[in-house]
Structure formats: C-alpha cells, structure tokens
Design a protein that fits this description.
Elements lengths: L8 H12 L10 H12 L7 H9 L12 H25 L31 H19 L9 H11 L7 H13 L5 H23 L34
Helix pairs in contact: 1-4, 2-4, 2-5, 6-8
C-alpha cells in the first residue's frame, strides 16, 4: 500500500482498534473524531506540523505517550494517521471535496430517542446531528487546541463554524439561538444533504484560510545590509570586507 494512498475500510477499522489500545490513562480520539480533528487541523490559518497536533490525537490533554510505549504500535498507528491526514489534504486541495468518516448506528452506538436534558450529550439531537456529532466534536477539539481559526476576524469563518456546530449540543441560550438561526436559514432534509453541507463547509474554510496558511513570510533585517566597502559595524574602523566580511 502506497504511503500516499487513503485508508481502506479495513485500515479504518484497524486504526480504530489501535487508537483504543492507547496506553492508559491517556484518552485518545476514536477514528470518527480523528477524521474531524484532522480537518480542523488542515483548515487552520497556520500550517501545523504533525509534531504539534499528534499528541492531541493520543490524549485530549496532549499528555505525551509513555517512553515504554510499544514502538511497533506507535509506528503503525502514526503511519495510518498521517496517511489519512495527507489524503484529506490532497482531496481538499485538488478536488474541493472529501469523503468524511461518519458514525454508523449499531448496538454499540445506538440512535438515542429525542429527549431534553439528561447526561447523554446525544439527547435532544436529531438523528442527523447524532450521526454527525462525533465528527464535528473532533473538529471542535482541533479548534480548541489551535484557536487561530476561531479567532479570525472574518464573518465567513464564523458562519461556517456555526454551520458545523449546529450538530453539537447547545449549552447556552446564545448557542441555542445560533443553532435555531442556522436551522431556519439552512435546513437539512436528510443525511445525504447534511453530509454534503458538512463537506462544503470544510472546503469553504480550507479556501478561506489557504492564503494565510501558505504565505511565505519575508525575512526582515533589523538593520540595513552592510556593503563590503562600508565601515564594519563592529566599530574597528576597517572596511567590512577587511573585517567581519572577510572571506
């Protein structure tokens, strides 16, 4: 399997098992949350290196893996994570589209009946939002770890984030008002439309931040460049080429 190819279904399942085997007491994301987290990393206005974000995959508080961590497990898990990261980046850059990994309801992850309140964060969410919440929670995890995106003074970015966070449980009156506004202005008729909206929103964020993310900063000198025939700035009285500029 090429290091540049996306993960197969079997490899996604393998990655989920590998993440679940993260040494305790670390608390890792699962494969669905990882998918959202990686997109949250990729749409940041800063280009983030894996060393900066990988610790947040293996533990919500970015506690480092123990020194005695199985090196085979670490290498395989990291390789799969980086392959998915690269595949998502290529898909967004080249196609403006990607296929997100979305929660599927089963005996282990059952659909929760509608209810208000309660300890389960799924309670009160629609079936669509229950399916998308883990992915969006992973995305939010990235924006909390790296707040540059959420701090951008750009209404388009704020609107995009609201379209994603509609699938998270609203905890305040302000959040409930934002969700109600988004639901009214951009209603979702079914799961297919909801997934398309999620992908388009991420693609929008990727485009909105790409110029900043790949901007090359010009190196600015603290003092004018010294010519070879100018006095050496060390104060020796010699020309620069005869002093510190000598080759």
């Amino acid at each position: 399997m090429s290091a540049h190819s996306d993960l197969t279904d079997a490899e996604f399942a393998e990655l989920d098992e590998l993440l679940a085997a993260t040494p305790e007491p670390l608390q890792p994301v699962d494969s669905v949350m990882l998918d959202g987290f990686l997109c949250g990393v990729l749409v940041q206005p800063l280009l983030l290196e894996p060393a900066a974000w990988l610790p947040h995959v293996f533990d919500f508080d970015a506690t480092p893996l123990p020194d005695n961590t199985d090196p085979v497990w670490r290498e395989r898990t990291t390789a799969l994570i980086l392959r998915r990261h690269g595949a998502l980046n290529r898909a967004m850059a080249e196609d403006g589209w990607f296929n997100p990994l979305i929660l599927e309801f089963d005996d282990e992850n059952p659909l929760q009946p509608p209810a208000d309140g309660g300890p389960d964060p799924m309670a009160g969410l629609s079936e669509i939002s229950q399916a998308l919440m883990p992915w969006v929670a992973g995305f939010q995890h990235a924006t909390l770890c790296f707040p540059d995106l959420a701090e951008m003074p750009d209404d388009a970015v704020m609107n995009a984030l609201a379209r994603l966070y509609r699938h998270l449980p609203a905890e305040t009156d302000e959040e409930r008002e934002v969700v109600a506004t988004v639901e009214r202005e951009r209603p979702l008729k079914d799961m297919e439309e909801a997934i398309e909206e999620l992908v388009v929103t991420i693609a929008d964020l990727y485009d909105l931040t790409s110029e900043q993310r790949y901007k090359v900063e010009t190196v600015k000198r603290d003092a004018p460049k010294v010519g070879r025939n100018d006095p050496c700035p060390c104060g020796s009285g010699k020309k620069f080429k005869q002093c510190h500029g000598a080759t």
